[in-house]
Write a structure and sequence with these properties.
Length: 253
Amino acid sequence: MSPDISFPGTSGERGLNANERCHEMTRNTFDQHKPMLQSQSTEDLTNLKRLLFRRHTLLERAFFCSALLLLLASFPGHLVAQAQAVDEPRRGTNEVFTGYSFFSNSFNGHSTGASHQPLNGWEVSLDFPVSGRFNFVMDGSGYYGTSLGSPQHPIFVLCGVQFNRHFRKETAFLQGLGGLGHINSDFWGGLAHPTTNSFVGSGGGGLDTPISSRLAFRVKADFIYASFTIPDNQIHNQPNYFARISTGLVWRF
């Protein structure tokens, strides 16, 4: 009596998974060589079946492991590329900055009335690239406070050049600005009539740290020259040099 070399299932089934396809290949191999195999003993055929199934299983596992390793190898790179797309700053684009600004002193302090009252305010700026690492900057700021009983409300409108240097994700910059300043007419107090307009010069720099591809956190500091003169020969050492520190958000577009 010939040994049983049949396999469960039919070769016409569809939608087979990888393991079933391996079994199907083995089954077809046996069907093609059935006449020759029928002359073998039952024990030999059983061992041959196990060997073929083991071979297909090992090949299937090797293929699966190779595909898994390729997937794992590419997955971290995909995450890094995605993270860089989020965190890398958009360089060479227009920028809008807005934030809080600290002004080191008021304008009516002098040797007679010795007052050093800092002011608080805001700063906004717009810059856009013009050549290489250079940007053209338009800057506006305003401050509020009181010194020696007199209100202090200076406003500055400046423009100039900004030089940028990129360090990995951060961007450092230097600025040189010039423009006009205006202050309220009663900032001095008393009966004096000081000038309320002045040339203003500024020099400094700062650092931008990206939050996303379009948003960054900025810290900057600069020195400012402004001269709102007092027509009084008794007034000396009126402050003309000030420090300014600003911090806020930069939006790139």
